[in-house]
């Protein structure tokens, strides 16, 4: 964990992930600080890149984007093929995530489209990208878990997960 992030920062991050529109005063009340102190901590975490931005969570079905698919993509072994592929993927709003992976595939994508027909067009476009040799798709029938928040763990949770006992703060 980042040495400049303490338990209070973690508590602030948890609260912001729960309600990104919470006031500094409300967060301060929850963590035992003043609103200006919370503001200063948030600004520091934004400046340090810990907080990368703020967003609204939108129901995809309301925008006719109900189909989710995971697409595995294989590229030729040449590194020259990666940059054009990544540029094209980066510009396509249907591609929500793109992960450069090790193993049998080159990339794993999470895409969201309106229908099987729009997925079919997207896959045809992907297969037309220079260097793409194969795509394999899995369509989600139902989303069981969809978390946008990063797990904000502190020393107690990290110790529990590793089987260790957390040290008291004064012993660190």
TrEMBL record:
Pfam families referenced in this protein's UniProt entry, alphabetically: AsnC_trans_reg, HTH_AsnC-type
Coiled-coil features, chain-numbered ranges: none
Domain of life per record: Bacteria
Keywords: DNA-binding, Transcription, Transcription regulation
Signal peptide: none
Key word Glycoprotein present: no
Domain HTH asnC-type stretches: 5-68
InterPro entries associated with the record: ArsR-like_HTH, AsnC-type_HTH_dom, Dimeric_a/b-barrel, Tscrpt_reg_AsnC-like, Tscrpt_reg_AsnC/Lrp_C, Tscrpt_reg_HTH_AsnC-type_CS, WH-like_DNA-bd_sf, WH_DNA-bd_sf
Gene3D superfamilies on file: 3.30.70.920, Winged helix-like DNA-binding domain superfamily/Winged helix DNA-binding domain
SUPFAM superfamilies per the UniProt record, alphabetical: Dimeric alpha+beta barrel (SSF54909), Winged helix' DNA-binding domain (SSF46785)
Protein name per Swiss-Prot or TrEMBL: Lrp/AsnC family transcriptional regulator
């Amino acid at each position: 964990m980042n040495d400049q992030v303490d338990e209070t920062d973690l508590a602030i991050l948890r609260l912001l992930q729960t309600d990104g529109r919470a006031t500094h005063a409300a967060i301060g009340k929850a963590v035992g600080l003043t609103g200006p102190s919370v503001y200063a901590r948030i600004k520091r975490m934004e400046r340090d890149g810990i907080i990368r931005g703020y967003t609204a969570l939108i129901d995809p079905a309301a925008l006719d984007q109900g189909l989710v698919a995971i697409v595995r993509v294989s590229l030729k072994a040449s590194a020259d093929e990666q940059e054009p592929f990544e540029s094209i993927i980066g510009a396509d709003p249907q591609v929500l995530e793109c992960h450069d992976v090790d193993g049998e595939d080159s990339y794993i994508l999470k895409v969201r489209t309106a229908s099987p027909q729009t997925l079919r067009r997207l896959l045809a476009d992907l297969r037309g990208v220079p260097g793409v040799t194969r795509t394999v798709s899995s369509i989600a029938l139902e989303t069981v878990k969809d978390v946008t928040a990063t797990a904000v763990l502190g020393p107690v949770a990290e110790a529990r997960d590793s089987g260790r006992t957390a040290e008291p703060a004064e012993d660190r």
